[in-house]
Design brief:
It contains twelve helices and 13 strands. It has 344 residues and is α/β, with parallel strands linked by helices. The site of zinc ion has 6 residues, from loops.
Amino acid sequence: MSTSEIEKPAKNDKSADSHERSVWVGFDLGGTKMLAAVYDAEFQLLGKKRKPTKGHEGSEAGIERVHGLIAKALEDADVSVDQIIGIGIGVPGPLDLVDGIVLDTPNLGWKDVPIRQQLEDKFGCPAVLMNDVDAGVYGETRFGAARGARCTVGLFPGTGIGGGCVIDGEIFRGSRLSCFEVGHMRVVPDGPRCGCGRRGCLEAVASRLSISAQAAAAAYRGQAPFLKKAEGTDLSEIRSAALAASIKGGDKVVEDIVRAAARHLGTAAGSLVNLLNPDVILLGGGLVEALPELYSEVVIGAAQKRAMACYRDTFEVKVASLGDYASVQGAAAWAQHTLEKTKG
Ligand SMILES: [Zn+2]
C-alpha cells in the first residue's frame, strides 16, 4: 500500500460513534473441536477461541455454540460485532456452496443447515461457507508452505482423507457442491470396504483410522512391542503421536504399515499430477505432521512412479506449516477474496 493510500481520508466519515468495519473472522467447524479467529485487513491474528464441537447435541445447539465462540473471539481481539467485514467458515462436506447450506455431515450428524444465512442474520455482515479442507489448502497457498504456487493439490489424511485444490488463486469447484473427494478415489480394486460403502477407496487403506486399525492388530499379535507397551490393552484409538513414537521406538511392522499407506497416498497424488500438473502436492494432518520426513520421501517416490514422464519432475511435495491456523486464516482470507470479487 502506498503512503497516499494510507493518508486518503475515509470514504465514510459520517459516523464518529459507529466503528469502522476492519476485521475478518475465520471459523473452523471440525468434528471434535471448533476454532474461531479474528484477523485484521492484513490477516494478522488479533484474537482466537476454541472449544469442543459436541455435534451430537444437534445443529440448533451447535449453531448457538458457533455464534457464542465468535463472540468470545471478538472479545479476545477486543473488537465489536459491527467491526466485522465478513465471516468465512470451513465445514466438513458435502456442502451446497451456492446457497450456503451444510447438506449432510457424518462427522457432526447435521443435515440441511442454512449456516451462511444464520451467520449473516446473527452478525449483520456477509458470510461465506466453504469446505474445511479447501480452507486449509487455501490458507497454506496464501500464507503457508505452498505460498506462491499456481496450483496446489492438498491431501490430508486423518479420520478420513480430505482433499482440496487451489488453482490461480481460486478454490477448484464444480457446479454447485464442494468437491475434490480424493479419499474416495479407488486405489485398490476389491480392497477393503470404505465408510462410503464402496471398496478400495484411498481412505480405506491410507487414513489414520485404517493405519491405527492395522497397527492395533499388529500390537495385539505381539508384532509391535513398543506400541503395545505404550498403549497397554486399550488399542481402540491409537493417535498420530503414538504411531510416530512406536516407529521411533523401533516397531518395524508399524513403520511398514505407515509406509504402505503413504505409498497409496503417493500413487493417488501421481494420478492427480497427471490430471492437473500442480506445482505443489501439499500434505497435512496430524500423522503427516508427526512423521514429515517419512511421508515426504514415500509420497514423492510413489507419485513420481505414477506420474507420466513429462510430469515427473514438475512438482514438489511439501508439508503444511500453519497447523490449526491454516483453515481459519484460509477461511477468513477466502471470505475477503469472494466478497471483494462479487463487489467488484
Ligand atoms: Zn469411499
